[in-house]
């Protein structure tokens, strides 16, 4: 996986295609995408317009919170593949450990404006559905994003594929020291 990549979160509509095209033409080889960003179709157009062969690009995408139900995981992955115009992902992450209410509304809310979670879906059940994507050849590797050590331990105990990464915010003001030590142990 290339160390430097182009992240597509908060990219302005109508500008993503050109940004991806230029980034790839100028040497970027890693794209960070997510179904929840709502711009994978534009990212896919940029990949196509760049002329860079698919085999030279490392593509990461993420499963959005409304698609955590095991019955929704494959369909969500296939939508990302279609939107990106590719046959496989190099890396597919569970974006967050907590599931939102299932459905097409990316941010389902209660009457008071708070997010509507689905506590009946356990993140490990989502992980087990992600493992099937590897077996189907839709993704090469799977991983996590924003998981804590207890959630990771449950996945390690019940899953058959070890997560290749846990993408988290980490900087001098949030060094994640305990989590980093756990992940390298």
Quick rundown:
The chain is of the alpha/beta class and 185 residues long.
Structure description:
By secondary structure, the protein is an alpha/beta fold. 36% of the residues lie in helices and 14% in strands. The protein contains six helices and six strands; from the N terminus they run βαβαβαβαβαβα. It has helices spanning 16-25, 40-50, 70-84, 123-135, 149-158, 177-184, and strands spanning 6-7, 30-32, 58-63, 89-94, 139-145, 166-167. It has a six-stranded parallel sheet, covered by helices on one side. Strand 2, helix 2 and strand 3 (58-63) form a beta-alpha-beta unit. The longest helix is centred in the middle third of the chain and has 15 residues, at 70-84. The mean pLDDT is 96.
Describe the protein's topology.
Layout: E1 6-7, H1 16-25, E2 30-32, H2 40-50, E3 58-63, H3 70-84, E4 89-94, H4 123-135, E5 139-145, H5 149-158, E6 166-167, H6 177-184
Parallel strand pairs: 1-2, 2-3, 3-4, 4-5, 5-6
Helix pairs in contact: 1-2, 2-3, 3-4, 4-5
């Amino acid at each position: 996986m290339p160390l430097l990549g182009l992240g597509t979160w908060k990219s302005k509509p109508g500008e993503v295609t050109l940004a991806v095209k230029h980034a790839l033409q100028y040497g970027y080889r890693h794209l960070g995408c997510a179904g929840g960003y709502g711009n994978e179709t534009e990212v896919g157009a940029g990949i196509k317009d760049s002329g860079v062969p698919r085999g030279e690009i490392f593509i990461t995408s993420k499963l959005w919170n409304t698609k955590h139900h095991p019955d929704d995981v494959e369909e969500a992955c296939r939508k990302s593949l279609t939107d990106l115009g590719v046959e496989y992902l190099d890396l597919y992450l569970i974006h967050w450990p907590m599931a939102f209410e299932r459905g097409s509304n990316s941010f389902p809310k209660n009457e008071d404006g708070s997010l509507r979670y689905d506590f009946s879906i356990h993140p490990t059940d989502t992980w087990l559905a992600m493992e099937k994507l590897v077996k189907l050849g839709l993704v090469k590797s799977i991983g996590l994003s924003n998981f804590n050590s207890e959630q990771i331990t449950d996945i390690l105990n019940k899953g058959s594929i070890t997560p290749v990464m846990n993408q988290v915010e980490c900087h001098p003001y949030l060094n994640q020291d305990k989590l980093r030590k756990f992940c390298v142990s």
